[in-house]
Amino acid sequence: ALERTFSMIKPDATRRNLTGAITRMLEEAGLRVIASRRVWMSRREAEGFYAVHKERPFFGELVDSMSSGPTIVQVLEGENAIARNREVMGATNPANAAEDTIRKVHALSIGENSVHGSDAPETAAQEIKYWFSDTEIVG
Ligand code: CMP
């Protein structure tokens, strides 16, 4: 089915000028960018976005890194967009990511893994809503 998912290009990647290269990989995977904005998130915004991880040992490091520079927040649309996006991103830890995936090609480490993508329909809806109003999404 035609789905929407939320995607974020993280500060480690914008810092290395990879916004275009990563967006191209998403597009080549059959995903269409139907909303996009560059945002330097505050610590509060990062804490809110990643609230599900707040008890994890890496939470502080995650919030530091996500608020360390600009990110690109995007809504992607396509057939099975959630699964397709996860496939083209590759495993969370780049050491385990398959060949030709974004994280295999571009990520530096598990913390600096260049992209985030929603893992399920419920989180996709929540994450899209966290960053975008309906009028900003032009499908
Ligand atoms: P992401 O898909 O954005 O969701 C949570 C992030 O936490 C994850 O990608 C990683 O970048 C980051 N992270 C940092 N350390 C770890 C870890 N040990 N295990 C899982 N995720 C981690």
TrEMBL record:
GO terms for molecular function: ATP binding; metal ion binding; nucleoside diphosphate kinase activity. HAMAP family: NDP_kinase. This is Nucleoside diphosphate kinase. GO terms for cellular component: cytoplasm. Its main location: cytoplasm. Its EC number is 2.7.4.6. Its cofactor is Mg(2+). It is found in: Cytoplasm. Homotetramer. The gene is ndk. InterPro entries: NDK-like_dom, NDK-like_dom_sf, Nucleoside_diP_kinase, Nucleoside_diP_kinase_AS.
